[in-house]
Amino acid sequence: MLLENKTAVIYGGGGSIGGAMARGFAAEGARVFLAGRTPAKLDAVAAGIRDAGGLAETALVDALDADAVNGWVDSVVETAGSVDVSVNLISHDALFGPLIEVSADDFARSMEKIARTLLLTTQAAARHMVKQGSGVILYFGGSDSGNRMPGLGNVQIGCDMVEAMRRQWACELGPHSVRVLSMKTGGIPESMGDAPEMDAVKQQMADATLTKRAATLTDVGRIAAFLASDHAASMTSTQVNISAGAHVD
Q1: How far out from the chain centre does Cα 97 lie?
Q2: Which residues of 224-248 are buried (b: 16+ CB within 10 A; e: fewer)?
Q3: Which CATH number is 167's domain given?
Q4: 3-state SS string over 79-115?
Q5: Alpha-carbon span 25 to 85, nearest angstrom
Q6: What pLDDT score does 147 carry?
Q7: Does 244 fall in a domain?
Q8: Are the C-beta atoms of 64 and 117 separated by less than 8 Å?
């Protein structure tokens, strides 16, 4: 197994993407610790992993609270002996629309949320990973450098912030054998629910790919597990494009 005897922490582990990564990690032998704010969703993901023979635990953690984040990661290390993979999938506050119409206060709050949660969760994992001399920090939702689409408000800018943090963390943690990566998709139709009004949007996502097949949640989990494994030991400071050609680097 790719992640046997590894420990993974996932913020937003009760969501569709977080759950997919948790299942992917657990299927490859990792012990997964899921954090979030909705017990029912976390418990559902953990139960599915346990039913499949995997190891999963849950905790209510505010990923914007430094004491909560650091205390939880410290407890994970005390329990499992290490933290080998850290993933932050906390949802961002999307503000769609022309930037000229966006409230400065709303924009500032949304950017602060992204910056704060990524900084806190990465710091908490990095403290232990530097001591270990190993680890992988994985971000999701890499930016499209060729963006030419108006009306995205803070969305593209937020993704660009994630990429900037990924680059800075990678160069600072690299000498300690800690890798930092991000994943970029053209959208995951399965994560958008079953509402009929979303069918056209899902089809557009598939049509935008070269293969006419958008990435699935299973794809996300499998690729994330590979990136977190030693099979990807030479990969860091880059975003991994799983958009099936919808985005061209």
Answers
A1: 25
A2: bbbbbbeebeeebbbbbbbbbebbe
A3: 3.40.50.720
A4: HHCCCCEEEECCCCCCCCECHHHCCHHHHHHHHHHHH
A5: 9
A6: 63
A7: no
A8: yes
In a domain, 2, yes or no: no
Instruction: Report how far residue 115's alpha carbon sits from residue 93's, in angstroms, rounded to the nearest whole number.
Output: 12
User: Is 17 a domain residue?
Assistant: yes
Relative orientation angle of helices 217-228 and 16-27, to the nearest 10 degrees: 50
What residue type is assigned to position 237 of the chain? S
C-alpha torsion 214→217→221→222, nearest 10: -50
Q: What is the amino acid identity at position 213? A: R
Q: Which domain holds residue 79?
A: 7-239
Structure tokens at 38: 């909705």
Which residue did the predictor score with more confidence, 197 or 171?
171
Query: What percent of the chain is modeled with pLDDT above 70?
Result: 97
Q: How many Cα atoms sit within 13 Å of 81 on the Cβ side?
A: 4
Name the domain count of the chain. 1
pLDDT tens figures, 73-121 = 999 999 999 999 999 998 778 888 888 998 999 999 999 999 999 999 9
CA–CA gap between residue 132 and residue 129 (Å, rounded): 5
* 151 in any annotated domain: yes
Gyration radius of the chain over CA positions: 17
